[in-house]
Amino acid sequence: MTVEEQLRAAGRAVSDQVRDLPDLDLRTQPAARRARARAFRRWAGAGRWLIPMAAAATVVAVALTLVAVKSPPRVRPTTSGSPAPSRSAGPAVTSAPVDPEALPGYFVAINGFEARPAFSPGQSGPVKAPKADSVIVGETLTGRRLATIAAPAGSTFAGVTGAADDRTFVLDSVQLAPAARSGMLWPFQPRTWYLLRIRPGATPVQVLTVLHFALPSSADVNGIALSPDGTRLAVFYQMPGSTAGFPFNGPFTLRVYSVATGAVLRSWTGANPSKGSYGYGGNGLPDPNANLTWTSDGQRLAFAYRNSVSSNSSLYLREVNVAGPGGDLFADSPVVATIGASTTTGRYKIWCDSLGITGDGRSAVCGAELPKTPPVGATLDALTEPSPWIGCAGPSDVVYPGLAKISLAGDRLTQVLYEAEPKCMGAGWASVLWASPSGSTVLGSVSYTGDPSMKTHSAMVLYRNGTVTMLNWPGAAGVLLANQAAF
Amino acid sequence: MRLRDVNPPTNAPAPPGTAADPADQVTALYQAHALGLLRLAVIMLGDRQAAEDVVQDAFLGLFRRWGALNDPERALAYVRSSVFNGCRTVLRKRARNRQFVLADPDAESAEARVVLGEEHREVLAALRRLPDRQREAVALRYCLDMPVGEVARVMGIAEGTVKSAASRGIAALGRTLKGES
Predict the structure, then answer these.
(1) What is the ipTM metric for this complex?
(2) C or N: which end of chain A has fewer Cβ atoms within 10 Å?
(3) What is the Cα–Cα distance from A136 to A147, expressed in whole angstroms?
(4) Residues of B with CB below 8 A from A460's CB?
(5) CATH number for the domain including A59?
(6) pLDDT of B122 higher than 50
(7) Sign of CA dihedral A43, B100, B90, B112
């Protein structure tokens, strides 16, 4: 190899590794004076990481000793096998993120979910297509795939959630029904859970370990969320009740499991005949009922909740104190935010297709449907004026998809982070996929259909400290939902 | 569907040259060009953190001098020059430190040692020992695969100067690498 070829190869290697940028801080001081502050931050970061790293190590060790691996998924690394790049604010070879506000470097997403057919409420029978979904591990900023994990034989991956470290994920796989049932995905088919660890610089990038969580048979899992430190898994599910098909009408349960042992650490249960679940967003569109979010300290766990067959269709963000008393899902979960809807007309000022709490516990982030002039500063109670118009024929207002921030103090819309405003659109929807603890960085997917073409337009939107960037994920699916993509 | 089909965000920074806020303009410039400059600085320095500092300082300097820029179109040229100067400063500091420190003064970060293969580290380490102009010409021409004309424009020198600097740099690298092997 000539010197020129060596230089070009080295340049490509550097380009492969340097794919993200730190935020530009124009208020900062020059580097010479920044050095001391950075040294301090590194120590603080390292210290902060000792706990989750130790916990993760314990998890892996315990899982390895307690769990027998049966039919492990096939792992197929991608082309180059090159080391994974660093998180945007941290060095590539350390597994500890430096800045909790920084965008995670990796995503883990279920592949193939875009092929799912529409599902009508009240429909009885299978809720998802018979396609076995694999899982892809990739880079957040570029969408580049680092690895593909095929589903275990006869199963499909159905859900994914991640810890705050950008390295630890839990996968939910469900066994496909036998051919006699058309191979469909039913909630009462056996599930298998996996711990997925990403190892920067290693080949393969990922390590999988089987986990055991004792969910009741036939539990229809609505949402999952791994605690920020990766030690606990929250699962929200509904039991069938008296109905044979969907939606179920049995009791809802929110459980917190130990990742290391599978033990149930906390459980809240409540019945609500006015609500039915549809699994992980069964119609392929964002569903706030699937949203489970933790605060950064792992003490508070929020779940979005909406009646589906009641005159009150308001959306509530409820919150349980993991260390607090009580086991009643509704009595022991105060409402911390409300997206009001009129009980007579169903009208609302804004709607949230996804709704979760920020890590600092002060705000909610909303994958929103917004009017042209969003009511920033207003409380989000029910709308008394006519509904925003949907479609190009509308004389004035249209609902646009976007990302918004809501203060938990007073249910006020505090900020519109992004709003798509195409000239002409039909329906729009949006989903928050990841938010930093303060909500200063939010990653979401925004989609709308053209009118009258009905062509779907989608974008991955990154809001970072007042600046919006569109991420170009090659081949990205039109819709990414909570529980189907984790960061 | 294509992501760019969605309208640009309403609060995205205005392009340079408009009457928008300087912070917005510098931020827009940063988003458009900083990644390439960061890669260049990493090649020059072998240290991601030092490279980020150099690039950050270059844009910070641009922001502070924005009002004094006669032509905002010159902003990119200014910031490129700042990155070149910043890298030279870092390399000179390292060279000075070597005179007083017996151990290797971390000329290359632990990150670079692991992330880049041995063969890449070796050639880039040799590159860093070249004189400034040769190093920059070689890095732009070969590591970043820029055409000669583009390198000349970026460095603000004639194409002939680029060719001669790069040629001498390649020859020196060949000798260095041959000697090391």
Answers:
(1) 0.81
(2) N
(3) 6
(4) 3
(5) 2.120.10.30
(6) yes
(7) negative
